[in-house]
Amino acid sequence: MAQCNIKVDLWPHMLEGFKEKMVLFILIFLCSLLQANCYNINDGIRLSRGLQIDEISLLAPAWYVSLDIRPYGNIPYWSNVIHFTADGTNINTHGSRVPAIFFKGKSRKLHICNPVNSDRNYCFNSEPLILNQYTKVEIKQHQLSDGKFRLEIKIGGESVHSVINDKARFFGNVKVYRSDPWYPTANALIKNLVYGNLPYEFKLAGKKQINTIPRYHEVYQVSFDIKPEAQATIPNNWRSIIRFSIKGNKKVYGSRVPAIFFHIGDHRLHICSAVSNNQNYCVNTPQSLPTNRFTTIKIIQNYNEDGALIYRVFVDGVQLVEVVNTHPRRFKDVKVHLTDPYFKSANATIKNLIIKSDLGDTIITPKKDYEMTHIPFIGLQWYLSFDIKPTGTASSLSNILHITKGGDESRIGDRVPSVSFLPGNSIQICNSVGYIKSQCFESAINLTLNDYVNVRIRQTLDVKNNSYKIYVELNNSVIYNVWNDAAREFTNMFLYVSDPWKPAAKAEIKNLVFQNLPFGYTYDKCNEELSSDIDCSQYQSLSGFRSVEGVCNNLQHPTWGAAHTKLRRVVDPEYASDGKFDTPRGFPNTNPVLPPPNAVTQQLFDVENQNSGSIKKITTLFMTFGQFLDHDFTETPHQYCKQKCDVSNSWQYPCFPLLFDTTTNSCSANGRSTAVCSNRAYLSPRQQMNALSAFVDGSQIYDNRKAHFELLRDSTDGLMKITKSDGLLPVEFAQGENGCFTVGGCSLAGDFRVDENIALHTMHTLWIRNHNNIARQLKSLNPTWSHDKLFNNARKINSALWQHITYNEYLPVLASIPAYQGYKTDVDPSITNVFASAAFRYGHSLVPNQFEQLNVGFNRENDPVPLQDAFFNRQLINDRGIEQTMRGLVGNMSNNVDDKFSQAIARKLFLPIGAVGYLDLTALNIQRGRDHGLPGYNTYRKYCGLPVAENWADIDSIMVPGAAAKFEKVYNHPDDIDIFAGGISEKHVTNLEIGPTFNCLIGQQFKATRDGDRFYYENPGVFTAQQLIAIKNVTLSTILCLNLNSPGKPAGLVSIQPDAFHTPDANQNTRKTCSGNAIPKLDLTAWSEEQVVVPIQPIPVKDQESNQDNHIGNVFTENHDNDVGGSINSHESEALSSINDALTNLQDVLIKMKQQFHNDDLLNNLDEDIVEETLHQSKKNIHQRLKDYIHSKKNVESDIEGESVHVKDDNQ
């Protein structure tokens, strides 16, 4: 049959006139005469009579088939759409139609058949399908809670028929036809064809042969889960579970490869196989299997790195035996029995039976005319991969492998592809391209003797151009590509290693894989990752300042930590076991079977309607700071799902809805995170992107996008844009403009999530005000500095202050990391996927149900703002400013980090009060983790070196009280627990806000982000010693006092506790006035270009005493002789400078406090006792700093006036 893939959407320029339209009409007409496949490639696939597209080695008792069908013409007679047959016939046996879909004659009604009970041809007739419109058809046979199997048919998303099938069974070697050889082909297009096995539990009974494996290689894997039936008396004989055999019980080598039994009189396993010329090599499990749960058995035989074939047996992941098989053999026609013909059946239930017999790691030496396998069908998208090692140098063209219809190059399809060595061991790859029988590419590189190289050849659809392309890769690098505008399908193909027409190549190959790829192989939409080909010299003009995008921070690895790079993995991703490396865990009709996220969260997490408070007195500011910090280094782009939950295509990409339960279609709509573009989509695991730089660099203040970075800047004096009248963020778009739905308008800020809630908005405003305050101070100190120099230095200082507060005030409350040891070029600071998608979402449990609105005396000024009203509501900021909300954040406690969440987070996320709907952020966290391929909780505990939870008793010892019982109700096994659900429910590490798993994952990330940052503020050379002292003197309370009080305006903040992340108390964290010395000041004199930096020298102790009546600030003088001798170190200089500043500021505070004491508006509710206490605390502060300096001398003796004086303790 000819094929004519007319891609109408590529020809718009041809349709302008009558003549051009006639050309297109004639082409279509000719295709019709030739009965060719004329269709838009993206519009589905036509059917072809007798076209076998696949063979399923084992179809389980539970399975599903799903496809979209579009009838496009008359249906004059009975015709076939798709047919699954286990015996290769139309209707001869119980497995002839498993299932088959037809159109009834002279109608568009579907006729769907499947064996049910004793009826080998149980059929159902549907209502007519709509002409020229796709309808989703779903057929599945699934297991009910009582163990029975039900066959169900859905059309258009609605269940139209179901029936109990009491004789559900396994079928082997099931051929898949699109359409079958026995009926005319239906006039229909199909797309989105998906089929596979569903979870099941199968009770062993009788003696059933379930499969015959034509080629059983020496590399194989057999695995299953088994649960013995509890019995009062266990039979005193061998009982068969499963057997792989060429013939006989155990009389030949191959009778048991393997065979598995229950031991006589107990439930120990007796596992036998053919190993090293022993046809009955057997091992026993040391104990009987438990009867109250499933045990996982895995038998694997494969090659190790040294080429030895290793036979291994695992029970629940524990290796029972490992032995070299010195006598490997391949077998033909191996029969698979549940249970075998020679013994009675075991009383047990099995599930998750997996049989793999392929070349795997087998090392193959090419031999002339060696036909390795038959490939029944090659589709439009396919993939070939293998590793090759030349063992000699080719002197002439010699073949490595060849996929062909039967000839060398006599027709199209004889090379799909052919791979050979040219003289010298360069590679020649030939393929049928378009109407060319053999188009060849020759690599310019000779492969190195005895070194393996990976070769990949694939043909995939380029969605943008609606055409197919062939790619050739060596070691992951594309070395050749060519368009194949006449791509076609092939049947009855043969794979040779090597072919009959050329000498065999001198080589070894391994990891040989050929497979058809699913329709829609290329990611429809994806994010292009930042190219690693970056010339860092273009950033030299920055002269010590960060790039906007974070590139070239690491000069050896320019993209490490940069924006628009993929999230880093600490463990391999785990997607559903459908072979696509893309389908999320928990996706319908896949393994493992996981509960819907909403079902998980409703069972595990409690909902709070009122703020419950924090045991450790954490303020709400800690929560908001954490969210603002998260928006500094994580943003994963995602796609929007526009489908409703109750329609048939609600699960079509990019939709990944959050089901409420397993019995209804009710759900919350959700779109998947956009994939990182990949030339190996579905062949290697899907990855996700971080749109932000990974550093604690203030990206959310300044933006990582160059254009927006410039848009945020004011035109003069290094400032950022802010409203002059009230110091608020500018409005970028009014509500309703350019997609803005925020009440009061969308704000112009460094991160688009700025208006997500009013507390987050206040943090954005605070730090932009801080930038401008820094810029103004720098301008005052350096009047000649340019606009750019002021801006760049203000940004650098602001980012350093942000880093300092993050690592010295925020992080110690949350997680533990070791002390800073300097910048490390080999540390990748990129954000990990588990950090962004699970661990750092811990803060969602801190979120309150409402935000308090307080006055300067920390009393309620307005009613609290419910969280639901605080979502995307800038109008509150427009009306009140940020001060009320910020005082509420500082003055009130957050919630605990635990398994309890506020109502607005766990049920009504982003929904206004009174709105109908449901969105649970905790369920979204779980779904996002599955979407990103995050493995289960136990995998991360193992990675962190923590004990894994093997049972529910282990969970009880790890989790908060009562959690284990909840987890057991939701999950089948601790291995299934989602990482967010497990991590948030752990008992806390002492003195920290999180448990050990999140402490590990969060701590490692912050350490990498710090150690892998060349511009980290403590890295020597980033700042001078004096500048570093000034930065380290600042606290978050400094930032709040500085930026909530503006000259000429009412005070926004009169007093604050020194530790802003903890509520004030009467002991160590009493509130202090912003104008006093207890709250440190931001002093930028170290950035003055006119400043002469002279090393600070200490004066003798007696001089300190004799000068005590002099000016209090002149304790250390720049020109003082070095009485002690030798230069002081940087730590001493830092301490002395800090003391000098404190003493100088004390004189100022004495004067200012006296002047301001009677200013009621400023001091508000403060009384004279508070002023006196402030002075007292200042003196204590100075005293403590002196002690710190003296102790830093490490009891070094100094000669003063010829007398040895030991400096110590309080007398100084």
UniProtKB/TrEMBL annotation:
UniProt name for this protein: Uncharacterized protein
Location relative to the cell: Secreted
Binding annotation for heme b: 844
One Pfam family per UniProt: An_peroxidase
GO biological process: one example: response to oxidative stress
Record-level Gene Ontology MF annotations: heme binding; metal ion binding; peroxidase activity
Statement: the UniProt record of this protein carries the keyword Secreted: yes
InterPro entries, per the entry: Haem_peroxidase_animal, Haem_peroxidase_sf, Haem_peroxidase_sf_animal
CC annotations in GO: extracellular region
Keyword Nucleus appears in the UniProt entry: no
Species annotation: Clytia hemisphaerica
Keyword terms, alphabetized: Glycoprotein, Heme, Iron, Metal-binding, Secreted, Signal
Superkingdom to which the source organism belongs: Eukaryota
Gene3D superfamilies named among the record's database cross-references: Haem peroxidase domain superfamily, animal type
